[in-house]
Specification:
The protein is mostly helical and 192 residues long. It has one domain. It is built from eight helices and no strands. Helix 2 runs parallel beside helix 7 and helix 6 runs antiparallel to helix 7.
Length: 192
């Protein structure tokens, strides 16, 4: 086994734990009497984000070598998703998920910002490229800024706009990164 295969196993384990935690407790979130569309949309977005994060992992297989710092940075992605899931999908079912989202919105948006910032230095360290050459640099910056807006704006319309923005961006990422070949071709082009 290569070093990357060991690294991808660690990442996959954390993502699997996060996905299992969210799927185990997701049913009450969609119960009609407790459902909140903003909260439920963020949960759906995080479920889809698991897939994109796993899919993007393959690009790092092209990295020439790995350091402990790069490994730790790589793990911050799945760990951030796990923390976000833990915030949005409580083990004890909330009576009102709108109130629950309001109670966790600040730490959730802080984790969302972390999720967007984390890939940029990792890509820089793994491939020794300027930060602006990260294939998703612009979208990561835009989503990080959107997360910062969520941190400071305490308005329901902002939360609704941000979740719609996140879902559209996630859908766009799924369309543009729909094959490993396309993702790897981008990485190879930038590193050659």
């Amino acid at each position: 086994m290569s070093l990357f295969e060991y690294i991808s196993i660690a990442t996959s384990l954390i993502l699997s734990f996060s996905l299992a935690r969210s799927l185990t407790n997701v049913a009450p979130i969609f119960a009609a009497e407790r459902r909140d569309w903003v909260h439920a949309s963020w949960v759906v977005g995080l479920l889809a984000y698991h897939v994109t994060l796993f899919w993007q992992l393959w690009a790092y297989g092209e990295a020439p070598s790995w350091t402990l710092i790069e490994f730790v940075l790589l793990l911050t992605g799945p760990i951030s998703v796990l923390i976000a899931v833990s915030l949005l999908v409580p083990l004890d079912h909330a009576a009102d998920y709108r109130a629950h989202f309001e109670s966790v919105r600040v730490p959730f948006y802080a984790v969302l910002v972390t999720m967007q910032i984390q890939p940029v230095p990792l890509f820089y360290l793994a491939f020794d490229l300027p930060l602006a050459f990260h294939p998703m640099f612009v979208s990561n910056v835009v989503f990080a800024l959107a997360g910062l807006v969520g941190l400071v704006a305490r308005r329901r319309v902002v939360d609704g706009t941000l979740v719609c923005f996140f879902l559209l961006g996630l859908f766009g990422a799924l369309l543009t990164l729909n094959t490993h070949d396309a993702l790897l071709a981008t990485v190879r082009q930038l590193t050659s």
